[in-house]
Amino acid sequence: LAWLNGEPGVLFIDAANKGNPTPHLGSFEATNPCGEQWLLPYESCNLGSINLAMFVNDGEVDYSRLEHTVRTATIFLDNVIDCNRFPIPEIEEMTLKTRKIGLGIMGLHDMLIQLGIPYASDEGRQQSSEVMNFIRDISEDESIKIAKQKGPFPAFDKDTATYEPRRNAALTSIQPTGTVSMIADCASGCEPYFSIVMIKHVMDDDRLVLVNKYFEKIAKDEGFYSRELMDKVADSGTVIGHPEIPLKWQEIFRTAQDISPDDHISMQGILQQSGVDSSISKTINLPSTANREDVRRSYLLGYNLGCKGLTVYRDGSRDSQVLNTKERSEQSDGEEQTAVVSSNGKRTLPDALSAKRYRVKDQDGKSVYIIVCFDENERPMEVFAKFPFDNRVDLKDKSTMWTTTCRLVSLALRFDVPMNEIIKQLDRSSGHMLDLPAQLSKLFKSFMAGTQHGFADTCPECAGNLVFEEGCETCKACGYSKCA
Predict the structure, then answer these.
(1) Domains of the chain, with CATH numbers?
(2) Minimal CA–CA distance to 318: which of 162, 136, 453, 478?
(3) Phi/psi of residue 142, each to 5°?
C-alpha cells in the first residue's frame, strides 16, 4: 500500500522502546498521527520548534543566540504543562506525571543554504547532527536546572533511570511545521524545500510565480537571474540541469524530488541519533519509477540507521499531489486534461477509456454486470450496470433504477467528489446487501484498498494542489493542512 499512495507509514516499535525514558510505566505501542511523538496511553503532545534560519550570521551558526533560545523554549514548554487545561483527568494525570516536551526545529534547509552546504551531503548531515546535538544538550541541561528548583518529573525512577534527575522525561522531537513554517517563511521541519520556483493560484486563471528568497538573491548577486530562467525552472520543476545556474548552486538548491531516497533516510537517521528523544516526522521521496522492492529497501535502511519510523511517498502515486510547475499548470487548462481533475468543473471524457467488468448477483439472484471505466491514471470515471436481456416489466423498472444510480455516481466521479463521500452515500442508500448501492460500495472500497489513485488530493480551500511532506498533505498556496 505504501508503494501505491504513501500510506501507511511504518513504525519500528523495538527501536522506539529502546529509548523509552520511563519503561517502568509501560511500553510504547503507538505514536501520534504524524509519527514524531511516541507516547504512553493518555500522554499528550507539547511541541515547539526553533527556526534555524534565524541563527546564521556571516556564514556561521550563532550558537550563543541558539543556546539562549533553547533554554527559553525549554522553560516555556515546561510552564505550558502547568498552565494548560486538559480535556479529561487521565490525560492531565499522565502529562503531569512525565512532563514530556517536544522541542524541535524548522528551517534546517535554510540554515544549510546560508552556510553554503548541500542538504544531500556528508557535510550537510554532519552540520545538522551538530546543531541537533547542541539543542538536545542545552535543553537537557536547562531541564536539570529546573528540576533542582521544582523537582524532577514525578514518575522519575532513580533506580532505573540512566540520566540525571530532570524536569521532563523527554525533551526533543522533530514535528511537522507546515503551516508555521509558511508563516516563518522557511523550510518545514527537517525537510528540504519542495520547490525553488512554485506557482501560486491567486485567482481563477491567474498564477503568481514565487521564487525562493535565497535563490533569488544569489541569482541576482551573481548575475544569472532572469525572468526567463525562473520560468524555465518552473517549467522543469528543478534547478538541476540548467547551464545558466552554476553547479555549486544546483547542488545546494536540490529539492525534495531531486534528493535520493538514501540521502533522505540518511538525514533522518543521523538526526534521530543526534539527540532526538522521541521521533521525527519526515517524508522519504521516491521517484515514480520506484518499485515495491525499493520501498522495502528504504524501510530496511531506515531501520538499520536507527530511525523509529518511516514514511515514503512515490512521485505520481496520487493525482495532483505535486505543487504545480508552470508546465503542469498550463496542461491542466488544455485538452490534455482528460486524466486530470479540473478544479473548475467535471472531468472531460476522452473518446476511449479502459474498463473492467464485474459480474455480481442482485437480491433476486440475477446476474448483473457492473462495468467501471478508468482514466489513464486508473481513476474511475464512469459506472454502468447491464442486465441480461429480459422483457419482464419488473426487470425493466429495476434496470432503469440501476441505470439512474450509475449515471449519478458517474457524474459525482467526474466532478471529483471524494471517493469516501460517494461510498458513505451509497452505504446510507443501501437497503439490501446485494442491491446496487451495496455492490458499488463494495467495489469502490476495494479500489481504495488496492489502488487509491488520487482520491481527494485537491485543496478543499483554494482548489490548489496538495504537497505530501512530513507525513501530511498541505497546500503551499493557502496553508491548508489535512493534519491541522
Answers:
(1) 2-188+258-314 (3.20.70.20), 197-254+322-335+460-474 (no CATH), 354-450 (3.90.1010)
(2) 453
(3) -70, -35
Q: Give yes or no: 336 in active site.
A: no
**Is 34 annotated in the active site?**
yes
Three cell numbers, residue 402:
440501476
DSSP label at residue 99: -
Q: Which of 36, 382, 469, 470 is catalytic?
A: 36
Reading the block at residue 55, the C-alpha cell is: 541563527
More confident residue, 94 or 325: 94
- Of 34, 307, 406, 459, the catalytic one is 34
Cell numbers of 32, please? 501520534
296 bridge partner residues: none
Question: For residues 359 and 370, what is the distance between their CA atoms, to the nearest angstrom?
Answer: 6
Do residues 343 and 45 lie in contact, with contact meaning Cβ atoms separated by under 8 Å? Answer: no
Greater model confidence, 430 or 189: 189
Q: Is 403 helix (H, G, I), strand (E, B) or coil?
A: helix
Residue 321 has pLDDT above 70, yes or no: no
Query: In which element (H, E) is residue 385 found?
Result: strand 380-386
The span from the CA of 100 to the CA of 170, in Å, is 5
Residue 475: partners with Cβ closer than 8 Å, 6 or more residues away? 459, 461, 462, 464, 465, 466, 467, 481
Q: Which DSSP string corresponds to 248-305?
A: HHHHHT--TTTS-HHHHHHHHHHHHTTT-SS-B--EEEE-TT--HHHHHHHHHHHHHT
27 contact partners, CB below 8 Å, separation of at least 6:
17, 20
* pLDDT at residue 33, as a whole number: 83
Residue 252 or 377, more confident: 252
Whether the Cβ atoms of residue 101 and residue 77 lie closer than 8 Å to each other: yes
The question of whether 133 is a catalytic residue gets the answer: no
**How confident is the model at residue 452, as a pLDDT?**
35
Alpha-carbon gap, residue 461 to 105, rounded angstroms: 27
**Per-residue pLDDT tens digits for 202-260:** 655 566 788 999 999 999 999 999 999 998 898 888 999 999 999 999 999 999 989 99
Q: What is the pLDDT at residue 346?
A: 66
Q: Which of 177-186, 227-236, 289-298, 428-437 bottoms out in mean pLDDT, i.e. has the lowest?
A: 428-437
Given the residues 5, 32, 285, 324, the one annotated as active site: 32
With a cut of 60, say whether residue 393 has pLDDT above it: no
- Contact residues for 484 (Cβ-Cβ < 8 A; gap 6+): 179
